[in-house]
Amino acid sequence: MWTTNAQYADWMFCLVRTDPKAKKQEGISFLLIDMRSPGVTVRPVHTMEGGAEVNQCFFEDVKVPVENLIGQENRGWDCAKFLLGNERTGASRVGSTRERLKHLRKLAMSEMKAGKPIIQDPSFRARLLSLEVEAKAHEITTMRVLDADARKDRGDAPNPLSSLLKLRASEIRQELTHLYVEVAGPHAMRLALEAEDELEAFTPDWAGLATATYLNNRKVTIYGGTSEVQHNILAKAVLGL
Predict the structure, then answer these.
(1) Residue 191 · residue 204 · CB < 8 Å
(2) Which domain holds residue 68?
(3) Is this structure's pTM higher than 0.85?
(4) Cα 57 to the chain's mean position, in Å?
């Protein structure tokens, strides 16, 4: 489930159970699979905003050559941890968050609510300022984690602090898209009214995109490991609980 862009992929990697008697993360192998292999079927999963970037992948009697094994048999979880650590660090998206916050503030200064720019609404301004502070703190934390990784050769061992980066980045992104929808106000309905051209004529282009992004970003606290999983990793690997 939820295989992103599988409809475009020529190859994919799978974590495959190769020792059914092993416990937990043991007994899993890391395989590369040709998506053109007989028995591989990809079906789209439509998300709330109408996109189809994620998919279900079905494998029916699929045969994979032995040479497509990556690493050692039954040690595939080592590869997975390495990839997940990099994915979670990459989820920080510090640069794009900084630019979107600038854009959001600019919009809030021009879009009106009750005859005044939205930025003058005390509640909205407090949330925006809080998010800007959180984003800056997250940026500094990201730089500290990357610097620590650069100074210490961790080999294939993932840095557990990557879970902190992923956790905070996903929460910041969701709040950011929420504020975009608030600035859009009634224009946020554009996504549901796309077929009515007379209404589109009065709606700024960014408003429909804001709604689609808000709906799509409900998934960011799930992929790469749910927020609950990240909390568990931090509790065990960082806090030693």
Answers:
(1) no
(2) 6-74
(3) no
(4) 20
